[in-house]
Amino acid sequence: MKKNAMIDRYRWWEVVLMYMGIALFLFFILAPFIEGFLVSLKPLGLLFSTPYKFFPENGSFKAYITMWESVPGFGRYIFNSFYISTIITMVVLALVVPASYAFARIKFKGAGSLLGGFLAVNMFSGAVLLIPLFRLMRSYGLLNTYWSMIVPGVAFLIPTAIWLLSTYMKRIPRELDEAAYVDGAGHFYILRRVILPLAMPGIIVVAITTFIGAYAQQFIFALTFNSKTEFMPLPIGLFAYFGRQEVIWNELMAASFVGIAPAMILIFALQRYLVAGLTAGAVKQ
Amino acid sequence: MGQLALSGVKKRFEKLEVIHGIDLDIKDGEFVVFVGPSGCGKSTLLRMICGLEEITEGDCTIDGTRVNDLPPVKRGIAMVFQSYALYPHMSVFENIAFPLRVEKRPEAEIKEKVGRAAAVLQLENRLHQKPGNLSGGQRQRVAIGRAIVREPSIFLFDEPLSNLDAALRAEMRIELTALHQKLKATMIYVTHDQVEAMTMADRIVVLDGGSISQVGAPLELYHKPANLFVAGFIGNPKMNFIPGTCTAVSPEGATVELVTGASVTVPVTAAGMLQGQPVTLGIRPEHLTQGAGDVSVEITPTVVEHLGVNTVTYADLEGVGNVSALLSGSADVAPGQPARLSFSAADCHLFDAEGQALERRVDSAMPIPAAASAG
Amino acid sequence: MGQLALSGVKKRFEKLEVIHGIDLDIKDGEFVVFVGPSGCGKSTLLRMICGLEEITEGDCTIDGTRVNDLPPVKRGIAMVFQSYALYPHMSVFENIAFPLRVEKRPEAEIKEKVGRAAAVLQLENRLHQKPGNLSGGQRQRVAIGRAIVREPSIFLFDEPLSNLDAALRAEMRIELTALHQKLKATMIYVTHDQVEAMTMADRIVVLDGGSISQVGAPLELYHKPANLFVAGFIGNPKMNFIPGTCTAVSPEGATVELVTGASVTVPVTAAGMLQGQPVTLGIRPEHLTQGAGDVSVEITPTVVEHLGVNTVTYADLEGVGNVSALLSGSADVAPGQPARLSFSAADCHLFDAEGQALERRVDSAMPIPAAASAG
Amino acid sequence: EEITMIVCGDTMDPIHDKYIAEWEAQNEGWTVAPEVVGWGQCQDKVTTLAVAGTPVGLAYVGSRTLKEFAEFGLIEPIPMTDEEKASYYPNVVGTVTYQGQQWGVPVAFSTKALYWNKDLFAEAGLDPETPPATWDDVIAAAKAVTENTDAAGFGLVAKTFDNTMHQFLHWVYTNNGQVIDDEGNIVLDSPEVLAALEAYKTLVPYSEEGPTAYEQNEVRAIFLDGGVSMIHASIGAVSRLQDTDINWGVANLPLGPEAKGPGTLLITDSLAVFSGTGVEEQAISLAKFLTAPAAQEEYDLNAGLTPLRPSPTIDALVEEKPYWAPYIEGIEYGGPEPLFTDYRAFQNIMIEMVQSVVTGDAEPAEALAKADAELKELE
Amino acid sequence: MPGHKSAVLFAWILLIPALLYVAAIVAYPLVDTFHLSFTDASLRKTTNWVGWKNYQKIFDTEFAEIIGRTFVWTFLSVSLKMIIGTGGAVLLNAALPGRAVFRILTMPPWIVPMAIGIFMWGWMYNGQFGMISGLLQRFGLSDGPVAFLAYGSTAFWATIITDVWIGVPMVTMYMLAAIQSVPVDLHEAAWTDGASRFYRLRRITLPMIFPAAITMSMISLISTFNSFDIIWILTQGGPSGSTTTMIIDTYSTAIGSKKFGEGAARAVVICLFLSAFAILYFQAVTKLSRRMTT
Ligand SMILES: Nc1ncnc2c1ncn2[C@@H]1O[C@H](COP(=O)(O)OP(=O)(O)OP(=O)(O)O)[C@@H](O)[C@H]1O
Ligand SMILES: Nc1ncnc2c1ncn2[C@@H]1O[C@H](COP(=O)(O)OP(=O)(O)OP(=O)(O)O)[C@@H](O)[C@H]1O
Ligand SMILES: [Mg+2]
Ligand SMILES: [Mg+2]
Predict the structure, then answer these.
(1) Which of D11, D244, D300 to mutate to test the interface with A (most CBs of A within 10 A)?
(2) Least CB-CB distance to D212: which of E44, E237, E239?
(3) Most exposed: A21, D356, E128, E223, by fewest CB within 10 Å?
(4) Which residue would you say has higher pLDDT here, B320 or A240?
(5) Mean pLDDT value across residues A93-101
């Protein structure tokens, strides 16, 4: 153990207490995954058996192999999720970066209520708006394309993204754009050459959160607006493990783990930026 | 080229008026310093001249053209910010080149101009570094470099040295003065550091609560402050003020009876109606001596600072408040040990009940006594 | 009560050693100032004394007890941070009361002690405000108040005044000095402002790159800097350095031939082996005059600052570099107009090739000439 | 031209694929575009499409929704000839009939029977080879098992889930009860139904802990694990039981005091033809083609569903696999899912009624009266 | 930059794409919903204007009870999220070996598709085969299986716990960020004065992160209020309606029973409730945090 400065030095019981706290906390977070993992290891026939055994007796990773056979398109679903999320993230960024700049760096009448209006979008759950949305998608001719999932996905991810990014951008010193303005730079030039590069950590955070929101949580739109199997994203793909009456639980869980692995790897690689970007941004009201 | 005039300039934020009508003429090539306490509106005024703040009322003209509605770049103005406002993601070269890139100048010209500016500012070896790796003084120079390359006719500086330490500040002060001499451009400089104001300015504008309190050459402000505010603001340690009553007015000056009991005739031009009025006598710490003088007071120093060449004493005087004195290095004073100080009538300033100075009969080009600018 | 000793104290961050073995004894009730350029390790040293940083090697003892592994409270130390570190969500009262609350003192005692501290610091009327609403000076005083209530035997200050403007800084300096006299506690004070160091310190510790360069009373450092570094660091404007070669050593001193061609015998104690060695002659700007002297040089000022009582000129001298002179207020110099300056051998400092000073034959209690602390 | 078709489930059944191809071959210029939608979302999707004005040509729907669709004019009637009607088991046609019209073609059929665990019966001191034939038998057996073994007696289903009502209807239909009579009146509050509710209540202490947390598949899982000794389940349980070492039997659903003969709940899924697609005729033709006796039988056998029509093949099947017998026998006195316009509300009321009795929040009589009143308000 | 007209114009130019987008995709359906709420829209081909009838109907039913339950549910869930999330953040901020890994390990509930996470919880809650009941029996804390979703009170809490689980990672990350932005020197000063770790947590960290906690709780409030999948998948609002919240009720009405008009009216009521609540909350909280921070 590295020798910490005295202020960071813990007494042994503090260390024990804190590790216990962390263990408890992580157990809460991970217990369902443990359960899910155990389910994925058990043969379907032995899934439902008492007494409860923490470690399965005939555990095997067979489900991780058979899952690819039961739902042959699963790889495709993961790809679709990635594809859709990537496009959603790009579209969201394209819309949100300029808007956040306007909110964060330009004073204009009605900015507050407009931002509130954007946030109000989150007050409606997509489920309630499904039917009007469906009509809308149809009249735009977007049904049964990737766009049928991208277009509504973007709309519901915009508000949080604007909120996150504009709080981040508010923290860039005012003098930087003033200096550029005095030097004759136009608004667009300032945005592009000064603010954008500086807001990069914030943009990364927004990109990550948007991507994950789009990757894992876009279920209902995909379900309603798209009926082409080849366009289905991961969450729908997982539902393919629901048979006519029965659920192939072990494969479903295996597939869930396989499906979230790419996003986990992404988070793993970027978690440093995530915490750092949040530190600089969102905390301030 | 760089002549600037403000007439009746006012600024309101929402309802609140913070600049109350400023009239000021600045000659081409002049070095004008705005001083004043925090919040008096120095920055606001500068930002209005620059074009960063709307002018609520009144006119700002540059070389005879009204510029109220022109953006900064069209006013021929460059500004150096207190925080430097360097772009942290760009190299020093790109920072300096920024205004030129905005104007889409050819690459060769940019190289040449930035190179020239860097040479002037001794930044040649730093051009490829990021501002984050520079020292305070170097950053300051980069900020100036960015202003220089545009070749503006007017430079604005908003407390450009306040983030530097004392030694660096002194050094940069000299560099700026040299730069002014080299470029011969008009410079308007905001500070609340008196030493900067006194050493750099051709003229100082003292602002107080959004209005001009006095405009004049540094020594003029020192010797002939127009009012209590300027008198107290210029000079360090601060001028001592002793309340009193005018007992007589004669051609020699005004005779004042001080709260300490002493009486003195101050050589100022005073009207007869001053007689019987309460007045305030001002005497600078550097004019208090341990020798003989027209008036003397007895003090008990609470703090004594030995600066080597000078000794500064601070004391509480009943009915007057804090009194400080700047004595010679060898002065025999110690905390808690009573001492007698005196001053001569000729060094006194006199202010009427409204705080306006009565004109002194001195030459305002007279030098300032020792260590007036200490600290 | 407040006696502190460092012996062989070193600090390494990971691999990097930033403090190279400090030995220092501080007497009870002494006011010691650490000065040195940015990054020399002042803060690190202070934080090790406080307990905020581990001491990598060596011992820190307070009143004879080794305290390396004790937390700050147990060391009887209070610290005032450069940023003040006030708790923004607590009132001034609660901020000052914080250390007492930590110790769970009875409410009545807290009230009384905070009241007393507030009285000393003139904060009585601010007790219910939040720090956010206070001026810089007031915040500073709150931070000191928080240190006072604990009645520590040692106070540590890390550049406590560097966030204040010049006037306030001067004021707070006096308050701190008064406080020291009142509390009679040991105070260790970090700054890079020379004026602060010179006016407040009983002893100054000059740090350079993690080592002590010299320890001594303020005037001792001024008159007898131990090496080039201290000589250049103490005094403002900075001492001028002129390279030369020692041509002879005699009981009168060392004779030096300067690059300017002149030759001078400096009254220092020198060993014979110095002869033929390159040396550096140091002469403070305040010792250059327009009158006659042992040595004279011709300069062409590039910048001339009129401070009223003094005039400061800056010039480039071939083979020497920048040379500055602090002349009288009435000096007849102008930029670009050559002038002849001279100095006397007695005012010179001499440094050997390693930069170590040769002992001067002067009394280190001698006062410093005019305006040495200007700026 | 194209006929869109929504099929619920996870994959296209190969038999259907085969017959669709055949139909396409017979109908030059027509193609069928089937879309498979997971069972959970299938109904909502079909409805959303219809409401949004882009109905599918042909969809696989629960027959219970036919009334709703028909009432709002979303689907086409698909009249059956008497001959067609006669080819089905009794009561089957009733599941797709509303106001004298047929609104869909039955495509899948499910009935329920009683499974019991012979080992547990033996352990509890019961005769393992005699399945309970009446409710009283069930209750007595459940009690015995609960008291004498580690397992619970009966697998009671009361989760907030559609088959809670289904399972309750087993009891209603094995006691000659009804929810709606032939005239369309609500007749829930009857002695027959009350008896069913009371039986439920009696069984609670002899059931698995917390019936309100379990739906039928979960209860079946407990049964497969040997945790309960009796359940009502569909034929699908057989294959699972064969994977275990449980000694099991399957019998007709036990009968209540008022029963006239073996009964069960008859659930069918149908192919419904939506209006306004312009391909209604072809869709009807396709629906009939896919459910023609031979095709349907092939499909039923392959999918392990209760057959829709009697035939020699089926008789042979029962001969060969006797566990099929209860599933066929119950059809005669079986009843349909009652048709309500607001089926979901009806279902909620029924579930609420069952849950309130199971949890002891309400007495059977009052719960029944309340539900009856609510149903009457609903219509 | 000054409030020059060109700047304001530019602001609008920048906003317009996002604005139009949201207006087109969300605002239009919203207006549609609002319109629907005054009709008897259903599967029927025709819809009639019914005025306020749908709204009257809402308050005829047990809606008041549902509102009450929704608020209790939301309040409990948000409070728990904030408490657990902040606690987790405090722990993850400690300078302990392994904390980088621990931080990553808090993310999965956020990344996994919500439905899957809920299924896993469903498994956990299962009385016969689930982990919780299993462990309880194993450790002798319960002598028989406990079906957590079987009873009103346990199901109510079970849905809350699952909702908390899904919301905690976000809260933890935000609060961690907030904790890290508390200036180090405040801790150093307090420590120098002898304040223990816990004392510093109580008197410095927690008050200092209060404003961030407020913002976070506001955001989490909105999503919690609208939390649908969790309850729907776990209990469908049962047993006996004990987990039926406003959004569940709305969904059952609009999608389940296909009473689009009535469903729309409920959606509008939810939105009104939320907006009113959000405004009140924000006002109260800005006042509070202004008092806290200045
Ligand atoms: N955007 C603004 N909105 C409202 N009031 C403002 C604004 N900017 C400045 N003020 C007010 O105008 C007055 C003048 O401010 P200004 O910044 O010009 O002072 P200053 O002299 O530069 O002070 P300092 O020396 O502290 O920089 C202050 O009272 C300030 O509070
Ligand atoms: N935590 C740390 N890790 C690594 N290096 C450090 C750390 N803290 C300080 N240093 C290094 O130690 C050296 C001394 O730093 P210190 O802060 O003590 O300087 P200082 O004299 O206080 O400077 P300043 O006047 O700028 O405050 C510097 O080179 C600095 O980069
Ligand atoms: Mg300012
Ligand atoms: Mg430091």
Answers:
(1) D11
(2) E239
(3) A21
(4) B320
(5) 92
Report the length, in residues, of chain A.
285
Task: Kindly tell me whether chain D and chain C come into contact, counting contact as 3+ Cβ pairs under 8 Å.
Answer: no
Q: Which residue of E has its CA nearest to C92?
A: E294
| Closest of E240, E264, E237, E239 to residue E250, by C-alpha | E264
Three-class SS of residue D281? helix
Nearest-neighbour CA in chain A from C53: distance (Å): 6
Ligand 4 centroid to residue C42 C-alpha, Å: 6
Asked if residue B40 has its Cβ within 6 Å of ligand 1, the reply is yes
CA A110 – CA A108 distance, rounded (Å): 6
CA distance C287 to chain E (A): 44
User: Under CATH, what is the fold of the domain B237-359?
Assistant: OB fold (Dihydrolipoamide Acetyltransferase, E2P) (2.40.50)
Question: Cβ distance B33 to B206 under 8 Å?
Answer: no
Closest CA relative to residue A116, chosen from A75, A163, A69:
A163
CB–CB of D271/D299 below 8 Å?
A: no
Preceding omega of E109 cis (within 30 degrees of 0): no
Measure the CA–CA gap between B129 and B365, rounded to whole angstroms: 46
Q: The pTM is what?
A: 0.82
Domains and CATH numbers, chain E: 1-36 (no CATH), 52-293 (1.10.3720.10)
Q: Tell me if ipTM is over 0.90.
A: no
pLDDT digits (tens, 9 = 90+) for C32-72: 999 988 778 888 899 999 988 889 899 999 998 999 888 88
Q: Say yes or no: C57 contacts chain A, CB-CB below 8 A.
A: no
The three-class DSSP label of residue E33 is helix
d(CA A48, CA A46): 5
- How are strands ordered across the β-sheet holding C186-190? C77-80, C154-158, C186-190, C31-35, C203-208, C211-216
Which of D246, E115, C20 lies closest to A216, judged by CA?
Answer: E115
Domain boundaries defined on chain B: 4-228, 237-359
Q: Report which protein residue has its CA nearest ligand 1's atom 29.
A: B39
Confidence band of A276 (pLDDT split at 50, 70, 90): low
- CATH number of the structural domain B4-228: 3.40.50.300
SS (H, E, C) B264-320: EEECEECCHHHCCCEEEEEECHHHCECCCCCEEEEECEEEEEECCCEEEEEEEECCC
Dihedrals φ, ψ of E70, to 5°?
-60, -45
Q: Which two tokens stand for residue C174?
A: 């006096």
Give E181-210 pLDDT, tens digit per residue: 888 888 888 888 888 888 999 888 998 888
> Which H helix or E strand runs over A217?
helix A200-217
Q: Give yes or no for residue B42 CB within 6 A of ligand 1.
A: yes
**Ligand 1 site, residue B192, Cβ cutoff 6 A:** yes
Question: Using a CB-CB distance cutoff of 8 angstroms, which residues of chain C are in contact with residue A284?
Answer: none
Q: Is the peptide bond before A51 cis (omega within 30 degrees of 0)?
A: yes
Whether B22 is in the pocket of ligand 1, judged by its Cβ within 6 Å, is: no
- pLDDT (tens digit per residue) in C143-168: 989 988 988 899 999 888 877 766 67
